[in-house]
Amino acid sequence: MLTLISGAVQDRSARGIAAAVSRLITAGRLPAGIRLPTVRSVATELGVSPTTVSEAWRNLILAGAIQTRGRSGTFVSGPLPPRERLRYTQLSGVNVTLPKDLSTGVPDPALLPDLSGALRRIGDGRWAGSYLDDPVLPELESVLRERWPYPPERLTVVDGAMDALDRIAGATLRFGDHVLVENPAFAPLLDLLQAVGATVIGVPLDAAGLDPGALRQMLREYRPVALFLQPRAQNPTGTSMDPDRARALAEILLHAPSLLVVEDDHAGDIATAPPVSIGTHLPGRTVHVASFSKSHGPDLRLAAVGGPAHVIDAVCDRRLLGPGWSSRLLQGVLLDLLTDRRVIAQVAAARETYAARRAALLAVLHARGVQATAADGINMWMTVPDQQNAMVALAAHGVAAAPGAPFCVGPLPDDHLRITAGLVAGGYDDLAGVLASAAYQASRGSGRRGQGHPRGWR
């Protein structure tokens, strides 16, 4: 096995060793369950220091490709973590269907615009074109550019925000790259970055977005190649970056000229905060993703991606070997929705409704002494003394919430739950009683005092 590994390694840096071993695992030449040679023996075989091999092994462990078993040694776990270890699969928190499922993070279907009119208007075949046509309808691109927070060098359309993030990561990241994300961050993004072998570092948030001091420190310490963030209605906390914070972060990022900024504006037109982007200050290094799932419909499966040509062209070129383009029929539907005055009014009304729901639920929770934030979007980030006890207590009342742990890159001072406040259309007092009771029972279970008593969920 030593000969196999040494023969695959061309670059004897920690990153190169990790990449070579990862390729062997993916190709099946190092099958799952096989024990790897010791760090010292690999170092001797390659003629490098044990510290270099240890760092390579650490990157592979963080990527889920290998695992340590104490004194038994280090073993191949496979190129990807098992499904049950993915953060995304942990978000429901329970394995049964409950009457009030607030774990989903999806928009209220009743607040989405009706697509039937748009489908009738554009379903006459006008968008049926050639395989050689531009991947984005020219009329849609024109509308998107008018809405963009800064002038993008290139712009394309892909199949939703996660498709955009996946393709950007594939085009720009290498195994072992250090990548900065928000902490807490969107759980599926963390799964994605782990799958490509990135070493993920969390940057703490405050009420205006990423903490500038922490960002500055992590740039010095880790020399990351990319920063992924959500500029508005951050999932799960609801935090939105303000223009002053965007400017401050851009000034810090000037000192990391090779770092790429990737912004996921997932909430889009239902966010109450105005559009904001670091790309206003660093357009040549910022890729901005604009999603329409929350505002116009998840099944549209569309998101726009704009930014520097070398990134967007790489994404488009790779798509030519797969789907080629996103449905021009659906692009026509989106164009119709974005230019229909009635739909624009409906989306604006949905934005106000979500804001009212967040405010109403927060008010009654705060009155009961429950700590929670929901500044924007459809989610609420609620502090609890013990996550598991709180979820069990909620389930007893027929309410499901998403656990906070899958969103966290590293430990936070408190446990949390993510509540989809946008789905709560009434009964705020009763729900607040249930949520407060869950916090109370969790506190009691962990030996800490809590507040609030249930009046029952109706």
UniProtKB/TrEMBL annotation:
This protein's name: Putative GntR-family transcriptional regulator
CDD domains listed in its UniProt record: AAT_like, WHTH_GntR
Keyword annotations: DNA-binding, Pyridoxal phosphate, Transcription, Transcription regulation
UniProt xrefs under InterPro entries: Aminotransferase_I/II_large, HTH_trans_reg/aminotransferase, PyrdxlP-dep_Trfase, PyrdxlP-dep_Trfase_major, Tscrpt_reg_HTH_GntR, WH-like_DNA-bd_sf, WH_DNA-bd_sf
Gene3D superfamilies: Type I PLP-dependent aspartate aminotransferase-like (Major domain), Winged helix-like DNA-binding domain superfamily/Winged helix DNA-binding domain
Matches recorded under PROSITE patterns: HTH_GNTR
HTH gntR-type domain residues: 11-79
Protein family per UniProt: In the C-terminal section; belongs to the class-I pyridoxal-phosphate-dependent aminotransferase family.
Top-level taxon of origin: Bacteria
SMART domains hit by this protein: HTH_GNTR
GO molecular function list: DNA binding; DNA-binding transcription factor activity; pyridoxal phosphate binding
